[in-house]
């Protein structure tokens, strides 16, 4: 997955480094992406599956406690 800054007014940052206008950057698992005031973390397919499993297990535990 690539991210591109399309001449945004606030800039786009990957791992605290600003992308130049119209420059693309290949995202890797765990990369920090800041767009405006929002920070995101990129999770590749394998990491995303693990994240979903952890969330599902957490929900199942919570529902059993209620």
Topology:
Blueprint (H helix, E strand, L loop, with lengths): L1 E3 L7 E3 L2 E2 L5 E3 L5 E4 L2 E4 L3 H21 L1
Antiparallel strand pairs: 1-4, 2-3, 2-5, 5-6
Question: Any overview of this molecule?
Answer:
The chain has 66 residues and is α+β, with helices and mostly antiparallel strands. 32% of the residues lie in helices and 29% in strands. It has one helix and six strands. It has one helix at residues 45-65; strands at residues 2-4, 12-14, 17-18, 24-26, 32-35, 38-41. Strands 3-2-5-6 form a four-stranded antiparallel sheet, with no helix packed on it. It has a two-stranded antiparallel ribbon with strand order 1-4. β5 and β6 (38-41) form a beta hairpin. The radius of gyration is 16 Å and the shape is elongated. The model has no long low-confidence stretch (mean pLDDT 89).
Strand elements, count: 6
Fraction in beta strands: 25-35%
How would a crystallographer describe the biggest sheet? 4 strands, antiparallel
Oligomer: single chain
Shape: elongated
The Rg value, from CA coordinates, equals 16 Å
Report mean pLDDT, rounded to a whole number. Answer: 89
Characterize this entry briefly:
It is elongated and about 50 Å long. The chain contains one helix and six strands; from the N terminus they run ββββββα.
Question: Key terms for this structure?
Answer:
alpha+beta; 4-stranded antiparallel β-sheet; 29% strand; elongated; 66 residues
């Amino acid at each position: 997955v690539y991210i591109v800054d399309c001449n945004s007014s606030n800039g786009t940052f990957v791992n605290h480094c600003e992308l130049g206008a119209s420059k693309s950057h290949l995202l890797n698992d765990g990369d920090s992406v800041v767009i405006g005031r929002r920070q995101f973390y990129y999770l590749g397919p394998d990491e995303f599956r693990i994240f979903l499993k952890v969330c599902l297990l957490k929900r199942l535990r919570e529902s059993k406690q209620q």
